[in-house]
Design a protein that fits this description.
mainly alpha
Length: 150
């Protein structure tokens, strides 16, 4: 052979690098690389919030008129925060789901058919069935956000 590496060796090295990169991306994605959605508390926030706020208000020693005004202010901004959160989720969830789908499809493109089947079964064992199978009529992607591993 001449001075260059054989095409077969170059192909094997490139394939190894792609597989290693996919594996490392999957590990990072599964770990702290992507922020996870916190589990919902057992008590809904609207019910837990007044208890926390009451303690704070009590510590401030507010007069009744001040307490009423503080409650009004908090409720006003709570409504705005809820609307902002809903708006954020409408944009975030579809984009996140699409990135996950593209990443998984890219990894599958490198795998042989048996590895694809194994990869799919490992994903389903870890994260459950794909969301499209769980809630096909869900247009906004409100199903659980556990579909995050690559």
């Amino acid at each position: 052979m001449g001075g260059g590496a054989s095409p077969r060796l170059v192909s094997l090295v490139l394939l190894g690098l792609v597989l290693a990169t996919g594996f490392l991306m999957g590990m990072a994605w599964d770990g702290t690389g992507i922020p996870q959605v916190a589990e919902q508390p057992a008590v809904p926030p609207d019910e837990a919030e007044p208890e926390r706020r009451t303690r704070l208000v009590d510590q401030l020693g507010l007069a009744e008129t001040q307490r009423v005004e503080v409650e009004r202010i908090i409720e006003h901004y709570r409504v705005q925060m809820k609307a902002l959160d809903e708006e954020f989720q409408e944009v975030y969830r579809p984009r996140r789901s699409e990135l996950i789908r593209v990443t998984r499809d890219s990894i599958k493109a490198v795998l042989n058919p048996n590895q694809v089947m194994l990869y799919d079964s490992l994903l389903e064992a870890r994260y459950g069935p794909p969301r499209s199978e769980v809630r096909p009529s869900d247009e906004r992607g409100d199903a659980s956000d556990s579909d995050s591993g690559a």
